[in-house]
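agent> step 3/5: call structure_predict on target 'SMP-30/Gluconolactonase/LRE-like region domain-containing protein' (Candida verbasci).
agent> reason: downstream docking stage needs a structural representation; sequence fetched in step 2, passing through unchanged.
tool.input:
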Amino acid sequence: MSNSTIEIGSDSIFLPHYRGRLTEGVTYDYRNHSILWVDIIQGQINRVFLDNLSFIESIKWDKSGESIGAITLTNDENIYLACSKSGLAYANFKIKKLTYFFKYPDSDFRLRSNDGIIDPFGNLWIGLMTDFDLSAKEGGIKPEGKLYRITPDLKIDLMISDSLISNGLAFNSKGTEFYWTDSLTYTIWKFDYDVKSNKLSNKRPFFQSKLHFKEFESPEPDGLCITNGDEIYTTVFSTSTVVHLSKNGDILEKFEIDAKRVTCVTIGDNSLYVTTGNLKLDDFKAEIDSNDKSGDLGGFLFKIETGKPLNGQRKAIWGGKV
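tool.output (status=ok):
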């Protein structure tokens, strides 16, 4: 496959009637053919079924200061695990409610959940980073982030410390190789993983965005997904680009979207679904208008029809009781 670039415009907007502030965490639930995503800043989870795109279901935290960084599947198709400001909650679409069931051990007010996944063994891996208000006050992200593994019986292990923006992550299908993004190192890192000892080893760079996006000041790799053949699709925040990488980390193709702040990508059947952030995401006086499809299209979700089998790895299911 050649290193081609495919332009993606307004005709690929997935839901023309919806536009968020900081849409993230896009997830395909293969069991009921739905697409889920979060608006991190709004503390809101959204779901739409592919056979009824006119109706979007939403669940939102009812208290200020909350956020949701990631969502994962559970054994109930109407209940999802929501990685929230200070711990884990269940998002129940049957009763439209979010309920905490686990708080991080330090419950540090400085940190919030960012990206997370379930590994092939039913454990949650969740990254924490400096919260929005503090990074704004202090002039940036501090190297205080963490990556936790949380087991179904709620045992917690610190896997990585002192990260900046813990972001997109994935395991190969066997659970022996782990990919993890620290966005402000401009790198997707790859590790070997042994589940019996729960040890990460042999850390090495898999993809270094600064080498490929030299014209951008801060090309931050963001949310990603993986295929059954260990190919990676990753967004690169601030570059408008989704990059398709070989299992060796070489660029196979690029998708350039009319939105600078691409945030996350997932595979649903043979389509790519991409979330984006609005350019005015932190200006709460600004109206986020779904009718305005001019200029930067940040805040919209995009659906990219590739015309080929993508062989996406199915999202694993949380092993805990719901």
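agent> step 4/5: record observation. The two ends are 43 Å apart (CA to CA).
agent> proceeding.
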